[in-house]
Amino acid sequence: MWRYHRQKLSVCLLILLAVLGLAFHQGELKAWGLRDSVDSLGEAVTLAVCGAWLSLIISSRPVGRITNYLFFGSFLLLFSATLDLADEVLEYPPELRLFSRLESFPAPVGMVLLTMGLFGWHREQQVISRQLQGREGFLRDHQLIDPLTQLYGPVYLHAVLNREIKLRRPGQPLSLLLLDIAGFTAYNRQFGVAAGDELLQRLAIWFAGQLRPQDVICRYSGDCFVVLLPETPRSSAELLAQHLQSQLQHICTEPLVLQTVVQPVQDQSAAAALQQLEQSLVQTKMQPSSRHAAYSRVWY
């Protein structure tokens, strides 16, 4: 995950180094007798903990809004902790108040950003937990789970879709959303199967985090996902599809194209509805504009 955060991490570290350089230029080293070893130790531990938080975030989180909250919140805390520690070894001129302000102001802002990020992370985990609970409650059959992405598989999708069709009230909307990653085969050829698997796992987590608790997402085939959207009209499903397409470039640095198909489910069997969805995808891929979008951004 580090490579996805390399740019903002580099900028933040340059800012920190610039401020530290200015601090050492403006201040003078304190004599050993004026340094408080207990305070220095406590602030050094705080700095190390903030650095560990930042390291965990950039090594485990995909890019996105929640990750940015966590990243910049942790960095501002690390920034304040660094200047706190520098204050233990440097003495500034009495008229210079810049560093005391830089030392104090970023910490509360960082705490607010970090809290916002943790709240968003908590909501993501709630969605994932509901998905896991639903899997566990459905026949406890491990064949229903895709081993790579840990999402539901097509067998589960057929079963749940049939149940939704039978139990829904008259006039109650039910929609299917198909997500197809155009260019994935070329990506696999260039970067290898392991990189392709890591990409699918990352996308699966992100897709699941964008859905409501009652929605069901499944890995339908290799690079194709299907989302079951209960009580959702076609217009709302199309808005979700547009949101996922527009946000994909912020989640993945790879030049992927997300092709989507939205289909309302009528009074038909699950097999018939999914077959119709597949046919709609084939027709979408055959359109000249779709072919140009899909192949103009892959790796040849």
Q: Would you mind describing this structure in some detail?
A:
This protein has helices at residues 6-26, 37-60, 65-89, 98-104, 106-137, 154-167, 184-191, 193-209, 234-251, 270-286, 288-295; strands spanning 28-29, 90-91, 174-182, 216-221, 224-230, 257-264. A hairpin with a 2-residue loop joins β4 (216-221) and β5 (224-230). The chain has a four-stranded antiparallel β-sheet, with helices on both faces. The protein has a two-stranded antiparallel ribbon with strand order 1-2. It is an alpha+beta fold and 300 residues long. The longest helix has 32 residues, at 106-137. The relative contact order is 0.10. It has two domains: 2-126; 138-295, Alpha-Beta Plaits (2-Layer Sandwich). α1 runs parallel beside α3 (65-89) and α7 packs across α8 (193-209). The radius of gyration is 25 Å and the shape is elongated.
CATH homologous superfamily identity of the largest domain: Reverse transcriptase/Diguanylate cyclase domain
Structural class: alpha+beta
User: What level of helicity do the residues show?
Assistant: 55-70%
* H/E element order: HEHHEHHHEHHEEHEHH
**How large a portion of the residues is in β-strands, by DSSP E?**
5-15%
Number of domains: 2
What kind of sheet is the major sheet?
A: 4 strands, antiparallel
